[in-house]
Amino acid sequence: MAHDISPAVRSELAPTGKLRVGINYGNFLLVTSYTPGAEPRGPAPDLARELGRRVGLPVEFVAFDTAGKLADGAKTGAWDVAFLGAEPQRAGEISFTAAYLEIPCTYLVPAGSPIHSVAEVDRDGVRIAVTERAAYELYLSRTIQHATLVRVSGLDGAFNTFVAQKLDALAGLTPRLLMDVAKLPGARLLDGQFTGVQQAIGILKGREAAFRFLRDFVEEVKASGLVAEAIAQNGVQGVSVAPPARP
């Protein structure tokens, strides 16, 4: 497919001649293993390598430990494309494809909690621990009207604060909370989800030719089964292939 790529697409995707791909290794569902100097593994790196193969460009990974820092990389030109959650607060600098993968989000509540459903969380006096600048924190910042968000740096930080301060709920990605709940006797996850994080590919605004190419790439890798294969091969549990984009 590389020979079909227009010069405009290639120069917008890789102005330096290398496809610099931003990844968030703090998200263990997208990047299952990361060691500096070694090739990262996971659905996002696998799809990035496929993208590089199709455009005939070498891939260079630019790794960040949080989604917020990855998003900030758009301002400094640290990457050419990035695999991250598509959120309106990030759309000022970044154009997003449709999602390639969805991650459900819910709440963990402590033993003896009177809260039994997602709808009961947004009430006066309820304090929710959440990882600051995660895609689901951006969503909750837009939608929570009564409860208080306690924003903490990092997934482990949010969990530790939830426990130490005896907060009422811990917001997070359902697959991660399934691991956390095992550490807390009597704690439980609320059924359903408050949102699903839409994991997409982002590119700097204004690179329209490359954006159209990426948009088509995402739809093709979903339809062909490549996303499902990347999820299965990396043994990732609790995520799903995003549905086709609406025309």
Tell me what you see in this structure.
There is one protein chain. By secondary structure, the chain is an alpha/beta fold. Helices cover 33% and strands 23% of the residues. The protein contains eight helices and eleven strands. The protein has helices spanning 7-13, 43-55, 67-76, 135-143, 155-164, 174-181, 208-223, 226-233, and strands spanning 19-24, 59-64, 81-85, 94-96, 101-109, 127-131, 148-152, 169-173, 188-189, 195-204, 240-241. Strands 1, 2, 3, 4, 5, 6, 7, 8, 9, 10 and 11 form an eleven-stranded mixed sheet that branches. Strand 6 (127-131), helix 4 and strand 7 (148-152) form a beta-alpha-beta unit. It is elongated and about 60 Å long. The chain starts with 6 loop residues before the first helix and ends in a 6-residue tail after the last strand.
